[in-house]
Predict the 3D structure of the following.
Amino acid sequence: MLGSELLRCVPQGWEAVGTDLAPQATIAGLDLADEAALERAWREHGPFDAVLHCAAYTAVDKAESERELAERVNVVASRTLAQTCARHGARMVAVSTDFVFDGASTRPYVESDEARPLSVYGATKLAGERALLETLPGNSAVVRTQWLYGPRGKHFPRTIAAFARERGELKVVDDQTGAPTTTLELAPALWDVLASSENGLFHAACEGSCTWFGFTRAILEELGLTHVRLEPCTTDAFPRPARRPAYSVLDSSRLARLRGKRLTHWRDALKAYLQVETP
Ligand SMILES: NC(=O)c1ccc[n+]([C@@H]2O[C@H](COP(=O)([O-])OP(=O)(O)OC[C@H]3O[C@@H](n4cnc5c(N)ncnc54)[C@H](OP(=O)(O)O)[C@@H]3O)[C@@H](O)[C@H]2O)c1
């Protein structure tokens, strides 16, 4: 989802190459946790000045029963990429998640807040952050984002739109608060962090906040599906294998200082996304 958007907004004067396990990528079939394969790809397609790392094991619930694979992708691949960048003198920026927090806060999380993940996914992402920042301390950054959606991939607005058209009534959790963030907003911010020489942690989310219920109401309004009956419910009504933070709004002030502007408010970003695509 995010990688494809990054390739659509490569800054002027830069040249970027996409990699994936999938055969459609320019560097296809590359497992980032495989050090020898990575080194071969670097020599064949590089040299590279920098790496924007947004590959991940992202199946939050499945990770609870696939810890080993989640660790391989979220920790080992991060460390291997960081070591490769260190060997070649390249900068690296990786993407991480609000799920590193436990959700007990009552105000937006800043980068210096203590991370206490509730899930295997969150724990492996946190370990991946640390692997990068420890391996490449003078030339790397981690950008945590949340509730991501965009023109490619599976995501919440797409699922909600499909359910709403099929069912005519929806029940959505109203006790988890975050900030829906589009890849259209996030991708240019990631290029800016990569182009800067600022290191360490950044938070990057659209402004404002809502619950999944509030987000659903906005999606239905924008799609003209207001006849669909929408009911709020609690997280307990939909038991899932992975625990999620009840409150994970990210304070993106550091990123705003770097860029001289904030990401768009989530409600306006939703409108802008729906002008590009109808889910
Ligand atoms: N989606 C969200 O709501 C959200 C929220 C907060 C943070 N994030 C973070 O944002 C980043 C981008 O997320 P996304 O939603 O764009 O993820 P995505 O659509 O699931 O893309 C991740 C990509 O990584 C690839 N991948 C998995 N294992 C790999 C390996 N060993 N080597 C190379 N590639 C591998 C996947 O390939 P396959 O599909 O073939 O497995 C997939 O194409 C991730 O770091 C994620 O943790 C996402």
Summary: The pocket of NAP is lined by residues 1-2, 20-22, 31-33, 54-58, 73, 77, 95, 97, 125, 145-148, 153 (CB under 6 Å). Residues 2-153+179-208+247-263 form a domain with the Rossmann fold fold (CATH 3.40.50.720). The first strand starts at residue 19 and ends at 20.
